[in-house]
Amino acid sequence: MPLTRQEISEAMDRWNQAWADHDLGGVMDLFHEDVFFEHWTGTEVKGSKALREAWTPWFTNHGGFRFTTEDLFIDEKQQKLLYQWTLDWPSVEQGREGRPERRRGVDVIHFQDGKIINKLTYAKTAIEIEGKKMRLSVPAL
Q1: Distance (Å, rounded) from C-alpha 110 to C-alpha 77?
Q2: How many helices and strands (H and E) does the chain possess?
Q3: Which parts of the chain have pLDDT scores under 70?
Q4: Predicted structure pTM score
Q5: How do 115-123 and 31-38 pair as beta strands?
Q6: CA atoms within 13 A on the CB side of 98
Q7: Which of 23, 59, 84, 94 could cross-link to 70 by cystine, CB 3.0-4.6 Å?
Q8: Strand 80-90 relative to strand 115-123: parallel, antiparallel, unpaired?
Q9: How do the domains of the chain map onto residue ranges?
Q10: Pairwise CA distance, residues 26 & 129, whole Å
């Protein structure tokens, strides 16, 4: 069942509130059981059970992370959206762990049967830690 533009927007509002509340159950409510998630690191997770398992430690020890919506582009006909966000959280960068970090990125999200079936996350390679811009440290492949 395709969602209307309004239903997609309202679903994203509920989803964003669940993220703000650090409510993993609320976040997972919008995912299709066969969801495919690709993290900005390239890590891939298939299925809502595996995604819940992968995210449980992050939600348990969330450190107060906050996503802020910068923009939202909805394609009702294709059941897709582009979600531009800012993430404020305690840094995980080596040597700067726990310091205030700001990261920006986008999610490309596809819906199927009223649920998110694909969530592809992309992040900038420059971040801010304690208000100073810097490049992400990227390990060699």
Answers
A1: 11
A2: 3, 8
A3: 137-141
A4: 0.89
A5: parallel
A6: 0
A7: 84
A8: unpaired
A9: 5-135
A10: 29
How far does CA 1 lie from the centroid of its chain?
A: 24
Which residues partner with 38 through β-bridges? 44, 120
What pLDDT does 134 receive? 86
Amino acid 139: pLDDT: 55
- Count of beta carbons in the 10 Å neighbourhood of residue 66: 14
CA–CA separation, 73 vs 29, rounded Å? 21
**Tokens 């390239």 -> residue:** 42
Q: What is the DSSP string of 117-135?
A: EEEEEEE-SEEEETTEEEE
CATH of the domain spanning 5-135: 3.10.450.50
Let me know: does 103 contact 87? Beta carbons within 8 Å. yes
Task: Please name the residue ranges forming H helices in 24-92.
Answer: 24-28, 48-60
Residues in Cβ contact with 106 at an 8 Å cutoff, skipping those fewer than 6 apart = 82, 83, 84, 85, 121, 122
